[in-house]
Amino acid sequence: MAKRDRDYKHEYAIYQGKPAQIKKRSQRNKARRMMQKAGLVGLGDGKDVAHKKAIDNGGTNSRSNLTVQSPSKNRGWRKGKKGYSV
Questions:
Q1: What is d(CA 62, CA 35) in angstroms, rounded to the nearest whole number?
Q2: Which phi and psi angles does 74 have, rounded to 5°?
Q3: Whole-prediction pTM value?
Q4: Consecutive H or E run containing 23
Q5: Which residues lie below 8 Å from residue 22, measured CB to CB, with a gap of 6+?
Q6: How far apart are CA 43 and CA 29, in angstroms?
Q7: Residues 47/38, Cβ–Cβ less than 8 Å
Q8: What is the model's pLDDT at position 29?
Q9: Which of 4, 18, 67, 83: CA 20 to 30 A from 34?
Q10: What are the C-alpha distances in Å from 19 to residues 59, 61, 75?
Q11: CA 79 to chain centre
């Protein structure tokens, strides 16, 4: 199977450039900046800023709703014993 290069321009046009995704990305970036200001994370430290209650589920960017986690814990929340579930 041949390896295909990722078409970032197309990906942005069909998904990342949509207003809803831009808003979500903006909120994630704001949360990261808040935690950097508080001294809890730094550039290139390999830590993720996670929302205890997801923004999609009514969570906010308030300090009480943010926590610092490892990338594997923050990004693998759906994975169970049988793999990814939706």
A1: 10
A2: -70, -40
A3: 0.73
A4: helix 19-37
A5: 16
A6: 13
A7: no
A8: 94
A9: 18
A10: 19, 19, 23
A11: 16
User: What pLDDT band is residue 81 in, cutting at 50, 70 and 90?
Assistant: low
Residue 67: strand pairing partners = 50
What are the structure tokens assigned to 69, written together?
């986690």
Question: What does the H/E/C string look like for 27-72?
Answer: HHHHHHHHHHHCCCCCCCCCCEEEECCCHHHCCCCCHHHEEEECHH
Secondary element (H or E) of residue 79? strand 79-80
| Structure tokens that stand for 79 in this block | 């994975």
Average pLDDT over residues 35-52: 93
Instruction: Say which residues have a Cβ less than 8 Å from residue 61's Cβ, sequence separation at least 6.
Output: 27, 30, 31, 34, 51, 55
Q: Residue 4 above 90 pLDDT? A: no
pLDDT at 82: 61
Q: Is the distance from CB of 24 to CB of 55 less than 8 angstroms?
A: yes
